[in-house]
Queue: 4 jobs
Job 1
Amino acid sequence: MNIYFKPMLWPSILSFIIFIILLSFGTWQIKRLFWKEALIERYLTQSQSNPITDASELLEKQINEFKSVQLPGKFLHEYEIYITGKTYEGNAGFHVVTPFRLSNQKTILINRGWVSEGYRDPDKRKFSLYNNQINLKGIVRYPQKKGYFVPENDGENGFWFTIKPLEIFKFLKIDSSEIVKDYYIDALKEGVKMTLPIGVSGKPKLRNQHLSYAITWYGLALSLLFVYFSYHVSSGRLGIKKKV
């Protein structure tokens, strides 16, 4: 018995190109899966390690992202800004970002967390405006990078989309010699009682659907092969011929 196969030219070329594209998408998702798992592991390792307690360490450029901190200082509430387009459990709102004067007199930005539209105005949440020195608990973050479809920051009109410390400090007219520009801090939510602004939980909330995406792309690639060969069988171009 011999297997005979007479592939059609253009359907074969087109199917081959699409098959390679589908495989590449699936492989890319596998790479993203490994990257995301490493990121989650790094988040857990750094956020649960011994916190930085010396403010001078924030002037270094070797601090790992997500490193935990516990630093004394004072909020400069008169300079707070609001990051647009943030949600919490499906509710639209803002992230409150406030400069924080450290014990070494340097100033770093703190993403204090989420507030709803109704509590954006600080006069409506005076309970959240701490005037005394506090001991801030949080995690170190690197300056955000603007996504392709994310607008540019427009501080003059009050529209902020990404946390870029140097850009924000420049807009606020805070002396560049007094700032920490290489990092900002996500404030941690403390206790079980819900208070505004709502800080990060300290546990990673990173969607990791890359394995299911990879399976989908690979599944489409296999489906394409099935359709391709089924078509050739039905058209008499692929089959088994008995030896005479």
Note: The chain has two domains: 2-40+208-241, 54-187.
Job 2
Amino acid sequence: MFPELLSTKLITIHTLWIFVAIAVIVTTIIGINFAKAYGLKIQFISDNSLLMILSGLVGGRILGVAENYYAYFYEFSFESLIKTLYVWDQNISAIGFVLGMLIYLYYICKKNERDIFKWLDALSPALLIGFAIGHLGEFFAGINYGKETGLPWGVNFESPAIKYAVPIHPTQIYAFLYTVALVAFIIWLSKNKKVIELEKNGFIAGVTVLLYSFLQFIENFFRGDDTIAILGVRLPQILLLLTSILAGVFIYLRYNKRTKKSFRN
């Protein structure tokens, strides 16, 4: 666990932010290549990249604070509100970051009459690769950690921020591995002849959201960090399952070839 890559009296460089920076750069480069393969104009994204990233940071911060509200609002005060603006505390949700970016992408696509589903198909593999890099950063930062385990690959984190002093599930590494596997599958799927011949865009994006959300849902069974719980179930886990179901409904409704008449029969 190396939460700080460099620490001096003047500056502290957090390892997580280095991985986030690498993730953004790699995602951008790979996203450009995929967008070109889909015949999309890169300038459309580059002209809006700054506001898109800012939208992602806002979305990531909002969801990050919501998931860990107890760390900010143990008492309601002006100081508590100000603390929510301290983005350097590394509490930025990756899912919230992507949601913020997607909301802005939807806005500019609608404004400029572009096919957002085609953009989502093109960017899905790149975003997953960015997530994979981010999961490694989470491991070194000691966040999003797992429950205690007796399995041989359990890890010890020597940090007061982690409530376990025994080996725990390296859930960040689990997330890295299943995300890399998902990247390989999505790239293979995008080259499948039947998928290429689909009349409507959005299939790749839909499958990506369905599978990644479901895998994150499974991962949460092994998570040990604190978050909001409803009837003993982690709130992020509930939201991930709902997201996966909605993605499945989207795929079914968008690509179901049966007519209403045949459905009634």
Note: Strands lie at 4-7, 12-14, 229-230, 233-234.
Job 3
Amino acid sequence: MRIDIHTHAYSAHTAPRVIDSLVAHAARNCPGFHVHGDGTVPDLVRAEAEAGIDRFAICPVATRPEQHTYMTRFLAALRSGALGEEAARRVIPCVSLHPDDADAEAHLRTLARLGARLVKLHPYAQRAAIDSPRMIRLLKVVAAAGLPVLCHTGHDISALTDAPLASPIQIIRAHRRVRGLRLICAHCASWKNEASAHLLLGRDIYVDLAFQPGTGVEPIVRRFAAEHRADRILFGSDWPWASPAEHATRIAAWGLPPERLDAILGGNAQQLLEL
């Protein structure tokens, strides 16, 4: 089974606006940054099929506390087939909660009953450092529910602030404070964090290998692919910001042992998410 743990998709109504905004911000920090699709669920299904990916997680981000209601509607639409039969069969249900959601525990129980298998957090979009009391409280809620967390880590190429909100040191602090946390560090915390491999390599955390070639972090991400714990590395494309097919081909060209490459491209995620 081939699994893409990290993608994004939006409604046909909101996709153009969201993509235009993010591209405008990201282009300042990453020359050549562009999209690889229209950002909608049908186009994501197409891209993953072309890449030979069997299952993929669509990772929303709650930017306001009340958006747990959107997560409920998203899961209901996915289960009912309203997003398409292929999406219902292939999308891994992923949700997000906001660190200021006072009833996050109850809301997560509801979302888990609706099939949620993964929680996405984004310190920059949610304006809360990964080791802040607000985020620690939420991480404890998710860990207690037994769900993995996929968190944006490292700097964010579309961020308007230079403040560190998900640096390797902050990741270590958060991971130490939350018992049982299964944390996936998106992008290997690599951008604007040259010490990420030195600080995080070999730790009991998961990483996904999504990155933008134009940011110059490929050597760091490649080190994680080759040297991190073999059962803690996951394939993520970050579509529509990268092509799943091109990204999988890029990783395959790094000369990893076949069993390690198979684990990265799906085996590890299949075990983590119990698919």
Note: The CA atoms of residues 7 and 238 lie 4 Å apart.
Job 4
Amino acid sequence: MFFILIREWILAPFANHSLFHNFIRQDFFVQFSGSMGGFLWLFITPLVHIIIYSFVFSYIFQVRSVEGFGETAFVVFMMVGYLPWFAFAESISRSTGLLLEKAPLITKVKFPVQIIPVVGTVIPYLTHAIGCSILLLYLATQGYLNWMWFYLPFIFFFQFLFALGLVSILSALSVFLRDLQQLVALGVTIWFFLTPIIYPITMIQSEEIRNIFLLNPMHSFVALYREIVLQGKITFIHLQIIIPVSLLTYFLGGWLFMKIKQAFGDVL
């Protein structure tokens, strides 16, 4: 039974590719419809956040460069970790409303509802991949380009799987536990500050506490992006964390979603 559910979960976007593409196209453009800024908001929102954090840490806390990253400006160091996080945070934040927003469709039309969390995860990663590509293009012109960059899609893919697993769990449980919307919003904020994004891990003096950060998979993702892009290397302890955690989360989230999806129509 477990493997049957997992098989249906994995194959759903491919077996229903027309419906999947329609959902992607609709959800991608609807976020800009009626907006004067349109696609510019893809860049304005993270840019404003980056400017604020850069001002606070570069000029107030006087963090000019980061230990181990040579003369790399702090704002570059921060952006390399912040933009992938932004995609992750948005997908998690939106997860609790995915099924609730499509409740009329779920209760009236029979279709593979398991594609909804996939679409809900693809959209943030698709939109923010544009910003990440622009950043990488800029860094390539500044001399950071190296052959290790070929690993970036690999890391990005596993981060997507990790996010998709969490989105599946949260979207499914939010049908029965409506308070999850507030809890997830609070949890994403706490998670952000517990991940070395706007501060380097070297600011933490205790090695014991640094090791505790390895329990946070997003720390390993952010560390890998920075190592690959800015240093041209990989610390394998981070790979040993993200690969099994991402796969486990993806399969566990898919299994849970498929297990309880039959009850969605009764509750919604």
Note: The chain is about 70% helix and 0% strand.
